[in-house]
User: Fold Putative AdpA-family transcriptional regulator from Actinoplanes missouriensis.
Amino acid sequence: MVFVLTPQVHLLDLAGPAQVFGTAPGYAMAYVAEEPAVPTWQGVMLHADTTWPELTADDLVVVPGWRSGYGHFARPTLDRIAAHHAAGGSVASVCSGADALGRAGLLAGRRCTTHHDLQERLARQYPAATVLRDVLYVSDDRVVTSAGIASGIDLALHLVALRHGPAVAAQVAREMVVYARRNGDDQQESAMLRHRSHLSDVVHRVQDRIDAGFTEPLRLTELAAAAGVSERTLTRLFTAATGQTPLRYQQQLRLERAEHLIGHGSTVEAAARAVGFGDARMLRRLRARTLVG
Assistant:
C-alpha cells in the first residue's frame, strides 16, 4: 500500500492509518511524494520516495489530509491515483485528502465525505459528487473517504475488517488502545463535543460529571451541589449554554451510546441496560422521538 504525501500534511491523518495497517498483518507500506522532503503542518519533516512502487489491484492508495490552503498535487500524481483505481485498485482519503480524489476525477457520481469544516467547499468544487454530511467515512466503488483527523483510524480499521475480518480489526483496535471501532455512519461530533462551545465554567463542570457517569442515576440536587449553585440556577445556566436541561443532556448521551451498541449488533434491550435505562421502553421512546424529529 502507498501513502501519497503533500507539503503541510497533517501528522495524525497519516500516522493514525499507518499505525493501523502497521499493526495489522500483511501490509507493506510505502510513502511517496513529489519531493523527497515533506514538511508537515505540525513542523516535523518527513522523508518520502519520489518513485512509486509497482502496485497491483490488491493494493490501497491513501491520501492523508493537509492544512487547508496549502497542499496540492501535480497532474501526474493525480493521474497515477486515478490509474490505480481504473486498474481495479482501491483509493482512500482522510480529511482534505478528498480534494485530491476529486481532482483525480474519482468523486464524480460517487458518495463521499470529508471534515465537517470542508464539506460545503467539497460539494461546491465537485457538484457531481454526493457529499454526505456528519458521517465518519463512506465507501463507494473502491473509493473510501473519511472525515477529519482521527477518523482516519476508523477508516483504516474498517478496511482491515473487510480484508481480515472484524476479529482482527478488533485486535488491532485493542493493541492501539482505541475505545471502539466506529461505524461509518456514526456522527463526526459526539454530543459531548457538540454542546461544549460555550463559556460557562459551571456548566462545563456539570457536563464533566455527566459525561463521566451518564449511565448512572444523576440527581439534579447532586449536580447542583457539585457545581455550587442552586438547582434552579443550574437548570437556567445549563439550558442557556446547551439548549437543553441536564437530564435531557444525559439522555442524549445514553441514546448516542445505545445507538452505537445497536449498530454493533447489540439488542435494544441489552443496549438499554448497558447505558443505564431500567428497560427498553424509554430507549425506544427516545429513538422514536429522534426519528420523528
Observations:
- The mean pLDDT is 89.
